[in-house]
Structure formats: structure tokens, C-alpha cells
Design goal:
Number of strands of chain B: 4
Number of strands of chain A: 10
Number of domains of chain A: 2
Distance between the termini of chain A: 35 Å
CATH topology of the largest domain in chain A: Rossmann fold
Order of helices and strands of chain B: HHEHEHEHEHHHHHHHHHHHH
Distance between the termini of chain B: 26 Å
Shape of chain B: elongated
Strand content of chain B: under 5%
CATH superfamily of the largest domain in chain A: P-loop containing nucleotide triphosphate hydrolases
CATH class of the largest domain in chain A: Alpha Beta
Oligomer: heterodimer
Strand order of the largest sheet of chain B: 2-1-3-4
Strand content of chain A: 25-35%
Radius of gyration of chain A: 19 Å
């Protein structure tokens, strides 16, 4: 269970170095984002590019400290007990680089060890995840020559190695082909089912179809604010549209008007 | 800090670095071979100088003009050789390795008439071997001049001693190891560079490389303290630096077999003891400079950018060994505080067979501890900022 309440973050860019002075610019990346994700459900964070999705998820992962607002995972505050909170989350962030000289198994097991698992347990778990994500064939290969899809699978397995109750994914389907996207979708469905452990899954995307096909609940984010929350059907009803894309544009656009 | 996490990170970083065989070999081959190769090359030069001295050959142009000189040289068991026609050009081009004595045409007549004829020793000071030989040749010619003077005086009933009121004897204070150290003074620098090269790739890869690959952000989403992460990475950096240093130090032991000069071989005593001391002396460098390299690299977004920064450290360390040249008055106490220079001086003491003093060892260790603590604290602090960008 993940709760994000009234999160805000501003960045100060520029100021320049000794040699080059550039005017300081304040960017309000996140103004007021709230989100509630339950166990056994897939919660989508939908928003156009630059809406503040990645920044919000980074604050959830404890990489950036928020200016205001609170984030808690299974009731544990990320700001106060970051390590306990991180142990309950599997995070596949915006950056998900692998170690090219290590095999897929070593990449996965390394994170397992860092999560406090023993060698044997981490390796057994790597094999288990390889079966789930259909990547047994590449398990002993070095990550150096992996395709985009293989990379993504390895990174996802790495994030799930400690069998976390909460899974956070930042635009996981970016750069994946149809087949890889499909298998990822199936894996996520399984993970949130009772057989897969009824995980709480939060994933951000800007792709409508993914949300329609996968999400039990959606939070629409625009200009750093969460503007609407509900299931796909509820959002359609809220806007009086029949196509989800139209509903989304209306919600995001309305926010823009409010801003102006 | 959690020691378990420290070892998990350390193990992974060492494995990761040693998997990169190609880079490792490229760094290791010059680091390990340069010193021994230089040593054996140098020994070749010394051997040829010794050979020159043993052969007692003297190259004289126009010896037919000086029968008395020929007589003297032959009595001194010198073999007289005629120079090639273009000896000046050959000396200049370092093709001829003996200085040439030039005898003027009317040398013998002038000598008989009591005039002072002139002998010229032609040498090119940029020709190392010829320059080294000129001293013994001057000695031989001066011996001839002394004999002539003594004879002339004896003819007039004056004892020979009047021309030499004072006798000069040279007494060399340097023991044989100290003499060898003059030649082997550059060896420490090779070992120091070996440490730096060994630590370099690992330090860049585990900081800037991690950022460039986009693996730093996922790494930080693990419930591990930043202290343990940074310490584990640093441990791997220091370990690799020390591993290359060990190879480099051990490389000098077989290099001795390549030494061609007998006297150099007798003087250059570098056994397992010396190698072990050399190696241990690198510990402050591998730890302190490893941390410094990491701290310089963590701010860089790419490996390439970090490499440019690290050149600064490498250059500073290799230049530090030159400081004593500008200050020939002897070793100042502050030298031992400078990383690189301090170790170079200590290693030179080992080569000279001098004792290592605690007062010389402690400054380097303190410098290393300070560099490590400050560097690692900086890396730990910067890591979160770096990942968020």
C-alpha cells in the first residue's frame, strides 16, 4: 500500500559556474500530487511528458527529498525510515542501467544481496523470476549485448528480487516492442493477482492503451498536480466522454486552463 | 556502517573490475613492464661503459706525430686505435662511443723544444657514452703530462715532487647501494604510477561510470547505507591499486636477471624483502588517492569527463616527484606529507639501504587517512545529488 499526499518539489536551475553566469530559474516540477495505491491493484500514474511523474516517483523512492507532502509505504514514512521503506518496495526507475560485465543472474543476485538476502536465496529467486519473466535463456549471459527488452526484463527482475509487497515502475514499456510489452503486462497482472502475491503496483505512463488495459485505478497528473482519480469507467463518466483518450485530454487540458 | 553490505559491494566491484580484461591488461602491461625494461636498458648502458674502461682503448688521431705519447700509452697497456675519418660527425650522431684525442702535426718537435703543445679531446657532451669515457682519457693524458714534467725537472736536478705540492685523493662516501640508487632512482615512480593506473579504472567506473550507465539510481533504491556503498567501492579501488602495485614491485625481482652489468648486479639488491616494503609503502597511496580519484569523478556525468579530471591527479602526483630537483639542498621534512613524493623518497631510502624512520612514515599515513575520510564523505554526500540529476 502506497500513499502519497500533497507532494511538492521545486528545482532551482542555473546560477551558473564561476565562468558562466546564467540567470536562476525556479521550476516547479511537482506542485500537488496525491496518490493512493491499494494492495492487489494496479494503479496508473497517467500524465503527459513533463507532468512530474518521474519526479514524484523519485520522491517515492527516496532519491529526492520533497519540499512538502508525505510519502508512506505500508505505513512507513519514506522520509523518516528510508531503509525500512525501501525494503518494502521494488523500484524500476527512469534510469535502469545494468552492469554490462555481469551476467543477468549476477545483476539480479547483487541487488538481492543488497536487500539482505543470502547468496543461495538470491540465486534461487533469480531463477524463479527468470521463469516468470520468460528470460531463462539469457540468465547466464552478460548484460553487455542485451536488447532493450532483455534489459528491461533483467532490470525488472532485479527490482523484484526481494519479493517486495509494493512495486513501482516508471514508464516500463518505453522502447519495448509489442511482444515484450505483452509479456510485461501479463507479468504485472500475475503479480497483482492473489496467486502472484496480491502486490500493490504503481506504474507511470503516458500511453492511454496501457492504462485502459491494465489499471484498476488511475491518477491523472498534469502540470505537477494530480487532477483526477478513479477507474477508467469513472473517469469516462466524470468527463462525459466515450473514448478514454478524449477524457484524458479533457482532464489535462482543463488543468491547463485552470493554470492560465 | 554495515560490514556485510560493505563486503557485498566490495565483492561485486572487484568481480566487475577484473572482468574488464582488456582495459586491465592495457593498464597492467606498461605498469608492470616499464620499470623492469628501463632497468635492463640502463644496465646495458652501464655494462658498455664498464666494457670501455676494461678494454683500455684510446682513439687517437695523428698518433704518428707523437712517438713519446705512443710509448707512454703502450706502457700503460692502452691499445691505440685510429678514429674513423668523419669522427666528429659520428660523435655528434652518437655512433662513435669513444672520445677522440687529436695530436697536432708538430707535437713531438714542440715537446722537444720546451714549448707547450696542445692535445685536444674531442667529445660531444650530448653523447652519453663518449662523455663518460672522456674522464678516464683525460686521466691518461694527464699522467703523460706529469711524467714529462717529472722527467724535465729530473734532468735539471729538481725533485719531481715540487710540481705537486699537494696530493689529492678522492674518497667516495656512498656505499655500493647508494651508488646503485643513483641509477635506480626512477624505479619508485614506476611503482607509484602502477598503483594509480590500477586504481584509476575502478574508481572511475564505480562513480562516473555508474552514473553514465544509469545504474546509480537503482543502486540507491536498495536499503543500504551510503557509507557502506561508498566504502565497498573504495575498498575495491584500493585493492586493485595494491594488486597492480604488487605485480609491479615483484616485476623488479626477475628484472635483475636481465641486468647485464656485473657491478650493477652486485649493487642492485632488490629481494623479496624490498619488494614487500615497496608494496606496503603504496598502501597510503592506494587508499588516499583512490578516495581522491573517486571524489573527483563522482561529480562527472560521464566516464570521459571523469577521465579528464583524473589526469589532473595523475599529473600532480608524477610532478610531485620532481620537487626535489628544484630544491637540491636536501630533503625537506614537508616532502613526506606529499602523496607520491613522500613514497618516492621512502622507496629511494629502501633502495639505498637506509633505515626508514617513523617520522618519515607517519606523515604519509596521516595524509592518506585525511584524504580517505574527506574523499569518501564527499562521495557519499554527492551520490544522492548525482543520482537525482
Amino acid at each position: 500500500m502506497i500513499r502519497i499526499e500533497h507532494l511538492s518539489k521545486r528545482f532551482v536551475t542555473g546560477g551558473g559556474s564561476l565562468l558562466k553566469r546564467t540567470p536562476k530559474k525556479i521550476v516547479q516540477a511537482v506542485a500537488d500530487v496525491s496518490l493512493s495505491a491499494e494492495n492487489g491493484r494496479i494503479t496508473g500514474l497517467l500524465g503527459p511528458n513533463g507532468a512530474g511523474k518521474t519526479t514524484s516517483l523519485r520522491m517515492l523512492a527516496g532519491l529526492i527529498a520533497p519540499d512538502a507532502g508525505t510519502v508512506s509505504v505500508d505505513g512507513i514514512s519514506v522520509a523518516e525510515q528510508p531503509r525500512q521503506a525501501l525494503a518494502r518496495m521494488g523500484i524500476l526507475g527512469d534510469a535502469h542501467g545494468l552492469y554490462p560485465r555481469l551476467t543477468a543472474r549476477e545483476n539480479i543476485a547483487y541487488f538481492g544481496r543488497l536487500q539482505g538476502m543470502e547468496d543461495g536465496a538470491a540465486n534461487a529467486r533469480a531463477e524463479e523470476l527468470a521463469k516468470l519473466l520468460d528470460m531463462t535463456a539469457i540468465l547466464e549471459r552478460r548484460a553487455d549485448g542485451f536488447s532493450q527488452g532483455e534489459r528491461m526484463k533483467t532490470a525488472l527482475a532485479r527490482a523484484l528480487v526481494h519479493d517486495p509487497a509494493n512495486i513501482v515502475l516508471d514508464e516500463p514499456t518505453n522502447g519495448l516492442d509489442v511482444l515484450a510489452t505483452r509479456s510485461l503486462r501479463e507479468a504485472l497482472r500475475f503479480l497483482c493477482s492473489p496467486a502472484g502475491g496480491a502486490k500493490c503496483i504503481v506504474f507511470s505512463t503516458h500511453i492511454m492503451q496501457e492504462v485502459e488495459q491494465l489499471c484498476d485505478s488511475v491518477t491523472v497528473v498534469a502540470h505537477g498536480r494530480s487532477v483526477a482519480t478513479g477507474s477508467v469507467q469513472e473517469l469516462l463518466a466524470m468527463t462525459g466522454e466515450t473514448r478514454f483518450e478524449d477524457a484524458f485530454v479533457k482532464l489535462a487540458f482543463k488543468a491547463e486552463e485552470q493554470q492560465a | 556502517m554495515n560490514f556485510r553490505d560493505f563486503f557485498v559491494v566490495l565483492r561485486k566491484e572487484v568481480m566487475d573490475a577484473t572482468r574488464d580484461r582488456r582495459t586491465l591488461m592495457r593498464l597492467m602491461i606498461p605498469a608492470v613492464l616499464m620499470g623492469p625494461l628501463m632497468l635492463s636498458g640502463l644496465s646495458g648502458l652501464i655494462a658498455s661503459l664498464e666494457n670501455q674502461a676494461e678494454q683500455r682503448e684510446i682513439v687517437v688521431s695523428g698518433i704518428e706525430n707523437a712517438p713519446s705519447l705512443r710509448n707512454y700509452l703502450e706502457r700503460q697497456t692502452y691499445t691505440i686505435k685510429a678514429p674513423p675519418v668523419d669522427y666528429e660527425a659520428q660523435l655528434h650522431a652518437s655512433k662513435l662511443s669513444d672520445p677522440v684525442v687529436v695530436v697536432p702535426k708538430d707535437f713531438e718537435a714542440d715537446l722537444q723544444n720546451g714549448e707547450t703543445p696542445q692535445l685536444t679531446v674531442v667529445v660531444d657532451s650530448s653523447n652519453t657514452r663518449a662523455r663518460a669515457g672522456s674522464r678516464s682519457i683525460r686521466g691518461a693524458l694527464e699522467g703523460f703530462a706529469r711524467e714529462r714534467t717529472a722527467l724535465a725537472l729530473a734532468w735539471r736536478g729538481v725533485p719531481g715532487g715540487v710540481t705537486q705540492q699537494v696530493e689529492i685523493e678522492e674518497f667516495d662516501l656512498a656505499n655500493s647501494q647508494a651508488r646503485a640508487a643513483q641509477l635506480t632512482g626512477m624505479i619508485p615512480m614506476f611503482v607509484i604510477m602502477a598503483v594509480l593506473y590500477g586504481a584509476l579504472t575502478a574508481s572511475l567506473d564505480s562513480t562516473a561510470g555508474e552514473r553514465e550507465r544509469g545504474s546509480l539510481e537503482p543502486l540507491l533504491t536498495n536499503p543500504v547505507s551510503h557509507g557502506a556503498l561508498v566504502a565497498g567501492k573504495w575498498g575495491a579501488v584500493a585493492l586493485l591499486g595494491m594488486a597492480v602495485a604488487l605485480l609491479s614491485a615483484l616485476g623488479f625481482i626477475p628484472a635483475q636477471w636481465l641486468i647485464k652489468s656485473d657491478s650493477l648486479q652486485a649493487m642492485f639488491r632488490f629481494g623479496f624483502n624490498e619488494a614487500a616494503i615497496f608494496w606496503l609503502l603504496q598502501l597510503p597511496l592506494a587508499t588516499g588517492l583512490g578516495a581522491l580519484l573517486m571524489a573527483m569523478a563522482i561529480r562527472s556525468k560521464t566516464y570521459k569527463e571523469a577521465q579528464a579530471g583524473s589526469t589532473l591527479v595523475l599529473t600532480a602526483v608524477s610532478l610531485s616527484a620532481v620537487i626535489p630537483i628544484f630544491n637540491p639542498g636536501g630533503d625537506a621534512p614537508w616532502y613526506y606529507w606529499v602523496p607520491g613524493l613522500g613514497q618516492s623518497l621512502l622507496m629511494n631510502r629502501v633502495l639505498r639501504g637506509d633505515e626508514l624512520l617513523v617520522s618519515q612514515l607517519v606523515p604519509g599515513i596521516i595524509t592518506a587517512v585525511v584524504l580517505t575520510v574527506v574523499g569518501l564523505a564527499y562521495v557519499a554526500r554527492s551520490m544522492r545529488v548525482a543520482a537525482a540529476r
